[in-house]
Amino acid sequence: MAHLLTPGPADLAQHMIRMRLTLMRNSLRGDNASNLYIGVSAGLILAFGTIAVAVLWPAYLPLTLAAWLSGWIFGPIFVGGGNEALRPEYFSMLPATPGRIATALLAGAFAGPAPAVNLIALLSLPVYGWRFGPAGVLIGLAAAVTTLVTMVMISRVIVALIGLFVRSRATAAAVGIVIGTAIALCSNGWAPIVALGGADTTAWSEVLVRALPSGWGVAAIEAPWLLALAVLAANAGVIALLLAAWAGLLSRRVVSAARGGVPPRRGAPRPFPTTSGARVTAAKELRVWWRDLVRIQLLALAFSYAVVTPLLLVTIDAWIMVPFTGLIAIVMAAASSANLYGADGTALWLTLMTPGAERADVRGRQLAWLLIIGPAAVVLTLAGTLVSGETWAWPWVLGLLPALLGGGAGIIVLLAVTSLVPGTDPHKRGGNPLSTGADETAETSLAWLVLVAVPAIALPAAGAILLNPWAGIATGVLTGVLSAWGLGRIAYRRLESHGIELLNLMKHGPAPQADKPTTADLPIHHRIGVMISYTIAWLPLFPQGLVPMVMKIFGIEERVWFLALHLPPIWQWPTIIFMIALGLLMYGYAILIPMRLSSSSSATTG
């Protein structure tokens, strides 16, 4: 194969593109195809929306393009290092320079739907340039191409930098903190902007979005033509520098030791405690949480998001979220822990080869998770409630805290054995420490499911608190204990009866089932509807429905971003009820439509 890939840069890039397209074409089956079609459809909607911004609201175009840039930067990090169908390690033995391989890999990176969709969005630049005449259109077309290449290159360089940077617990935690803070800024970053002031903030923010690489095209269109050519030339120079940096990072990646965790200390290993059952499994799990860089990063992400999100609202003197810092951390930590067995790879055979070890394994994982998450969540909850001075929140935090802890401990082991996503064994992971080798889309869907299921377990406690605070606290404790015990019992019984199937799934992946319908079998309009419903249904249900409902009940006057509380009093309750109903209807649509497909298929085959 080397003689085919190394004749020249053009041929090398051509073969990379063909390989990428072939891999993508062969993977378009079942849910993979459905996810791709839905993702492309959603991306096209956003792309044409960007063009509409250039036509109707041109002043907001730099901010919109900055959102696309943030997607290229944070998107691959959120899904475990991005889609690396063509890994640099595959080509480390080819007789080619790192620069040529990097250029070819870059060409392969453009052979996919994401760059094509982004290019459509960047056509907003020549549309914006139409206001400045034919020269503005030409500059906009050139800027669209250079901006696309710059965005892709920045994404690759940042992922490569993080991949080389994350080689210790401290760096893994640092990356997790940065990512968690970025997610919090995406949701509540408007608060500090409002706190800083109106007109002055608008002025420097307009300069900032034009100074970002995504805004260079807009700046070139607005500048005189000589300066515009200088901006485009400087952009091309930045692309060359990014390519050189990426080539150097790739060469370091393929020659550096690739490991998915921190090795044990030199010298005699520490013995496990002289005990048995769940305690041994808990001790093993605690060491895994301490050594696995992916788990450390996800844990830091969960707690940093939980801390930063309320603090952003504090900048506008809204302390309502501070008492719930620990509760947010529990939910986020559970979402990042939903694939426990999949993250361990085929190590499950050790449990299956030990008679009667399934119960101890599940209970030990629950105990370890509670020991890691519980104390920190309790401290954050108590400290946040005391510091905020929100005395009304005490029944809520004391009742919801045990319910969420128990619910999280039960949900994560249940989903780990019922919705397992196969991943690469930790000792076989590639040179990207952000990636576990699992299906990023499936893991993301699992995380979203946990974000909905864990708060739902605490609903009985919330309802009891509304009736009687002390009864609500008792209900929360009882709900947490029953959830951890009952869901854990279902999990280890499932592991006892289906352990061999789970091990086979982790080793060989899901077996093809030609007769079983999938989401890909739905009509295209239903596929798009299901994707949109799962993506945005939480917005009307939780932040625009349930949260303002609780605030109305307790007479909390902070309106923050809740739509209903900004309306006249006569319209507030109807709006809240409408938002809750809308969220439930969207979740019902997303769940019932695929179920109807399965039932109709079973009736046909029967």
Automatic annotation (TrEMBL):
<feature type="transmembrane region" description="Helical">
    <location>
        <begin position="473"/>
        <end position="492"/>
    </location>
</feature>
<keyword id="KW-1133">Transmembrane helix</keyword>
<feature type="transmembrane region" description="Helical">
    <location>
        <begin position="172"/>
        <end position="191"/>
    </location>
</feature>
<feature type="transmembrane region" description="Helical">
    <location>
        <begin position="446"/>
        <end position="467"/>
    </location>
</feature>
<feature type="transmembrane region" description="Helical">
    <location>
        <begin position="137"/>
        <end position="165"/>
    </location>
</feature>
<keyword id="KW-0812">Transmembrane</keyword>
<protein>
    <submittedName>
        <fullName>ABC-2 type transport system permease protein</fullName>
    </submittedName>
</protein>
<feature type="transmembrane region" description="Helical">
    <location>
        <begin position="531"/>
        <end position="551"/>
    </location>
</feature>
<feature type="transmembrane region" description="Helical">
    <location>
        <begin position="293"/>
        <end position="313"/>
    </location>
</feature>
<feature type="transmembrane region" description="Helical">
    <location>
        <begin position="225"/>
        <end position="249"/>
    </location>
</feature>
<feature type="transmembrane region" description="Helical">
    <location>
        <begin position="367"/>
        <end position="387"/>
    </location>
</feature>
<feature type="transmembrane region" description="Helical">
    <location>
        <begin position="63"/>
        <end position="80"/>
    </location>
</feature>
<feature type="transmembrane region" description="Helical">
    <location>
        <begin position="319"/>
        <end position="343"/>
    </location>
</feature>
<keyword id="KW-0472">Membrane</keyword>
<feature type="transmembrane region" description="Helical">
    <location>
        <begin position="571"/>
        <end position="592"/>
    </location>
</feature>
<feature type="transmembrane region" description="Helical">
    <location>
        <begin position="34"/>
        <end position="57"/>
    </location>
</feature>
<feature type="transmembrane region" description="Helical">
    <location>
        <begin position="393"/>
        <end position="421"/>
    </location>
</feature>
<feature type="transmembrane region" description="Helical">
    <location>
        <begin position="101"/>
        <end position="125"/>
    </location>
</feature>
